[in-house]
Amino acid sequence: MPESPASDHGEDAGPPRRTAKRVIFGIVLILVALVLLFGGIQALVDPDAVIARSSNTGRSVDTDVEAGIGGLLLCSFGLTVLFYGVFLLREKKPSEGSPFGKADAG
């Protein structure tokens, strides 16, 4: 009698591993985060450049406070994206209470 293919599913029951797609997405997120951080820090350091760029648009010119708030928002969003990208790249370790964790002998 041939073996049922259902027994093959138990072999892959380990914790999920990092895939190439996940690593590439993590690296892309880290690069995007660096661009966001660079833009935010540049807006915080040189708000006059932000004001000069906004004067060429059809809306009202930004103030120093608006440039600073925009820089802080860009930095905080950049840090969030950076942490998520690093989270995608880190090695997953099963917790002690999970069915994949090591059991205490004792």
Describe the structure.
By secondary structure, the chain is mainly alpha-helical. Helices cover 57% and strands 0% of the residues. It is built from three helices and no strands. It has helices spanning 20-45, 47-54, 64-89. Helix 1 crosses helix 2 and helix 1 packs antiparallel against helix 3. The two termini are 42 Å apart. The model has no long low-confidence stretch (mean pLDDT 78).
Overall geometric form: elongated
Could you name the ranges where pLDDT drops below 50 across 5 or more consecutive residues?
A: none
Helix coverage percent: 55-70%
Radius of gyration: 24 Å
Mind describing the biggest β-sheet? Answer: none
Percent range for β-strand residues: under 5%
Tell me the number of strands: 0
Total count of helical runs of at least 4 residues: 3
Q: Give the N-to-C terminal Cα separation.
A: 42 Å
SS-derived structural category? mainly alpha
- Write the element-wise H/E pattern from the N-terminal end onward: HHH
* Average of per-residue pLDDT values: 78
